[in-house]
Amino acid sequence: MKTFVSPGNAICCSVVSVAGIIFLTILGVLFDKEVEALTESVNDPDDPHAVAQACFTAAIVYGCFLAFCGCQALVHKYNARNQIQL
């Protein structure tokens, strides 16, 4: 099977993607509920629901990266297991 990234990069990308998904989902929920700390300042966004939607979209993109890099890590594990010869 063909791999595009090294095993270390695949695992690192997976970890960063999980962290990004968690952070962006929480941030999106907070903007969607119009939490005062995020929406009532001088530099607040005009449309917090649009910001929430952008956070959720970015979380979906991170989910795609997680799926790709997770598959790459599994391919590396599968290839390493098949190369062991007794």
Distance between the termini: 21 Å
Helix content: over 70%
Poorly predicted runs of 5 or more residues? none
What proportion strand?
under 5%
Mean pLDDT value:
90
Radius of gyration: 19 Å
Query: Please, how many helices?
Result: 3
Number of separate domains: 1
List key phrases describing it.
86 residues, mainly alpha, 77% helix, Ribonucl_Kappa, RNA endonuclease activity, membrane
Task: Summarize it.
With 86 residues, the protein is mainly α. It has helices at 7-32, 36-39, 48-83. The model has no long low-confidence stretch (mean pLDDT 90).
Please, could you describe this protein's structure?
The two termini are 21 Å apart. This protein has one domain (7-83). The protein has helices spanning 7-32, 36-39, 48-83. The chain is 77% helix and 0% strand. It is mostly helical and 86 residues long.
Write the layout of secondary structure elements.
Elements: H1 7-32, H2 36-39, H3 48-83
Helix pairs in contact: 1-3
